[in-house]
Amino acid sequence: MKQGMVRWAACATLVLAGGAQIAWAEPAALPQVHHSGAVSYLSGGVGSDESSAIKAVTPDYPLALEFYGKRKSGNVYLADVPVTITSNHGTVVLDASSQGPFMLVKLPPGSYTVTAQHDGRKLSRNVSISRTGHARATFFW
After folding, report:
1. Cα–Cα dist 18/131, whole Å
2. What proportion of the chain, given as a percentage, has pLDDT over 70?
3. Long-range CB contacts (< 8 A, 24+ apart) of 136-141?
4. Is 129 within 8 Å of 113 (Cβ atoms)?
5. Helix residue ranges, H only, 24-140
6. CA dist 74 to 7, 13, 49, 65, Å?
7. Which of 39, 34, 52 is nearest to 93 (CA)?
8. How far from 110 is each of 12, 27, 68, 70, CA to CA, in Å?
9. Quick check: pTM over 0.90?
10. To the nearest 5 percent, what fractions of the chain are helix, strand and coil?
């Protein structure tokens, strides 16, 4: 009986230690956060781990951008997309290039025009950032 309790305690310790190891596992690495004046952003999403990590932090960013190319076989993710974000006053607040199909941007509340370019074609989207809301813009070429 005593030996059975010792085995049970040993098993319970191993299970708890394994659970603690899972709980303390490092989250997937996010792409580096960049800064341009008062604006911070990250971009990437190449590979499922990085894509999942970006999606997990999307609620922390007021603006989420996605970039796709239309192909006969379906949509494909795009990277290296030049992006310019202009305030409603005409001031460029961000001029950067996405490193993957997703770009998350921290902007103060306001109205903005997001312009992205691929294959020589520019597309623009108007977005409005509220104090508590989030905006999303998707670009298809």
Report:
1. 41
2. 80
3. 136/63, 136/64, 136/65, 136/66, 137/63, 137/64, 137/65, 137/66, 138/65, 138/66, 138/68, 139/65, 139/66, 139/67, 139/68, 139/81, 140/68, 140/69, 140/70, 140/75, 141/68, 141/69, 141/70, 141/78
4. no
5. 48-57
6. 56, 50, 22, 19
7. 39
8. 54, 32, 26, 31
9. no
10. 25, 45, 30
The β-bridge partners of 76 are 69
Contacts of 101 (CB under 8 A, 6+ apart): 45, 46, 51, 66, 67, 68, 77, 78, 79
Token pair 């659970």: residue: 19
C-alpha closest to that of 81 among 96, 62, 93, 61: 96
38-95 pLDDT tens trace: 899 999 998 889 999 999 999 999 999 999 999 999 999 999 999 999 999 999 999 9
